Amino acid sequence: MKEFLEFLGAQSPYDRLDDDDLNRLARAVEVEYFTAGTVIVEADATPLNCLYVVRVGAVDVIDRGRVTDVLGPGETFGHISVLSGLPPPLQVRAAEDTLCYRLPDPRTILTHPERLRFAHYGGLVARERLISSSESFARLERPIGDVAHPITWCDADDPIRSVAALMTDAGRSCALFLRHGQIGIVTDDDFRRRVATGEVGVDAPISAIASAPAISMSVDRTVSTAYLFMVEQGIHHLVVVDALGAAVGVVRVVDMAAAEVRNPLVIRSAAAAATTMDELVDACRLLTPTTVELWDAGLPVEHVGALLSAMVESIYRKIIELHVTTPPLSELDCSWLLMGSLGRREPLPNSDVDTALAWAVREPTDVVLTRDQVAAATEPLITALARCGLAPCPQGLNASSPLFNRSQRQWREVADAWRANPDDIDYLLMASTMLDARPITRPALIQPMRTALVGGIGRDAFTRALSRFSMSDRPPSGFVRGFVVEHFGEQKGHLNLKKSGLRPVASLARALAQRTGDPTGSTPQRLERAHRSGLLTTDEADALAGAFSLCYHLVFDSQITAIKAGKPLASAIDPAALDPLERRHLRSAFKAISAIQERLSRKWFSYEGL
C-alpha cells in the first residue's frame, strides 16, 4: 500500500489528488505482469472498465500496425476508453517484460475525479477517432446519398400554380426539371421571393423562377463535404447526381446536421441579406458563439476551422459588395484575395484576416489608375473588417497597402521579378505569401501570377531558393523540460505552437506545392499531392499531416477554452497543462518534422544539414 501511494503520488495526474482520494486509489490497485509481446489492450475491442499505469518496463502504442508511441514508468493508458465509453482506439502491447498497476474507473471511487486532468487523449489519436461513434460526427461522415430525398419532377413549362400544388402534395420543398440536358431546380424560397411578392404570376412557367443549371454534387461525397460546400455557397438545397451526372436525389441542410450546428448557414444567410454595415455587424455577433458551438458539438477541429473560414469569407464578400459601388472600385474588375491561414482554409479563432487585391480597368476606358489610388480606395473595407470583429493584419498584409494591391499586369510582372531574383529574401517572402492567396472573386485575374510562380524561365533556381527559404521555419531543436519555451514577454514559460509546429509544416507544404505546380488547397491537401507526386514517402506525408493536426488541435482547443473563460487568445500554450502523452507526441512530432526537413535538404541542396 505504501509503495502504491508513493509511486502514484509522484506521477501526473495523480499528484493532483488530495490525501483521501490518493488513498482510495492506492487501495484499488491491482498488479499485473505482462511478458514482452503480450497484447494488453486490443484496438476496437469492448470498452474498458479499467485503466493501467506502467510501473516497470514499457509498452508500445500501435495504430493500424505502426508503433506511434512508447510509454514508460508512470504513464497511463486505457483511460481513453474508460472515460469516453468507446472501444479502445489503439492497440497497446508490452514492448518488454512489464509490470502495470490496474485501476478501476476513477469516477467510481474518488470524491474528486475531476482533478485527474485527462482533458486530452493524445495528439496522434485524431480527435475524430475518439468521437467517431458519437451522433454529430457519425451524421457528418455518411455519404450524402444516405440523407437524400426522392425527387419531385416537373416540366420546365409547367405553370407555377401546378408545381406548387405538386410540391405540397408530395411534402417536398423543391422540384427538379430537365431542359436542354441541364437540371433545373425550384425551391420554396423561390416561391416566397418571386411569387408571394407579386413579382411573377402563378400562371407563368416554373422556369421563370427556377435556377438552372442546379448546383450538384456526386452521390459518394460525404455529408461533411456537402455541408461545408453549402455553407460556402449559401444554398439550402443540393442536387445529388450519379457518376453519369443524372440526378438521383436532393439533400437539404436541415437533413445534414444537428440543430446545434446549423448556425454557420444562418450567418452566411444573414450576411448575404445585409443591406447596410449595421446589419452586417449584427450578423457578425454570431460568429464567435457559433464557432464555440461547433466545437462543443464534437465536430473535428479541422471541420470547425473550414466552417469558420467559410463564415469569414461570406462576411468579407458582403463587405466588398457594400463598398465597391463608387469610383474607382466601381470601374474595375477585381479579384479579392484571402491570404495566410484563411487562404488555406485552416484559420484559428484568433487568426487575422490577411487580404490582397488584383484588378483590371474595364475596357474601353481612358481611366489611368495607380496602385496608391486603388489601395486608398480599399481602406474603408479594411475598416469594415474591424467593425465586424475581424482583425486586419497588423503587419500590413492588407489590400489597403500598395504592396498587396496591384493590377493584373503588375502582379504578373512582379512575380516574374521574384522568380528572376531568387536570392532576394524580401522577394521570397512575398512569393511565399502569394502562394497562399485564394481568390474569392474573379480568379482568372491572378492566374498569370500563379503561372509565373510555378513555371517560366528560371524556375529551377527559384524553386531551390523557395525550398531553402521554407526551411527557415524550424521546430524546436533543443528542449527545456521537453520543449523550447519563451523566456520573455507575455508568452514567458509558454510554447508557441504556431511558430514551432504549424508554421514549419505549412511552409514546407507550400514549397512542395510550388514544386508540384499546384499551389491551391490546405496544408494537408498539399502534403497529399506531394506524396502522390513522389516528393514525400507515405510515412513522411502521414507524419507531417499528423504533426500539423496535433498542433492545430492543441492551439484551437486552447483558444476555445480561452474564449469560454473570457481570456485573451494566444497561439502559445503552457506545456505544464499537457498530459504526458501529449508532451511525448509533441516531442515526436517536432523530431519528425526536423528529420523530414533534413532528408529533403540533403536531397534538394546536396549537403548535410541546413
Q: Measured on Cα atoms, how large is the radius of gyration?
A: 28 Å
Number of strands: 19
Mass-distribution shape = globular
Proportion in helices = 40-55%
Main sheet: strand order: 1-8-3-6
Q: End-to-end span in angstroms?
A: 53 Å
Number of helical segments with 4 or more residues: 24
How would you sum up the major sheet? 4 strands, antiparallel
Kindly report the average pLDDT value.
Answer: 86
Give the amount of beta strand, in percent.
5-15%
> Which stretches are poorly predicted, pLDDT < 50 over at least 5 residues?
119-138, 258-262
Helix vs. strand class: alpha+beta
How would you sum up this structure, described in words?
The strands form 6 sheets. The protein has a 4-stranded antiparallel β-sheet. The protein has a 4-stranded antiparallel β-sheet with strand order 2-7-4-5. It is 44% helix and 14% strand. Helix 1 (2-9) crosses helix 2. The chain contains 24 helices and 19 strands. With 610 residues, it is of the alpha+beta class.
Brief characterization of the structure:
With 610 residues, this protein is an alpha+beta fold. Helix 17 (408-420) packs across helix 18 (425-435), helix 18 crosses helix 20 (459-470) and helix 20 (459-470) packs antiparallel against helix 21. It starts with a helix and ends in a 5-residue tail after the last helix.
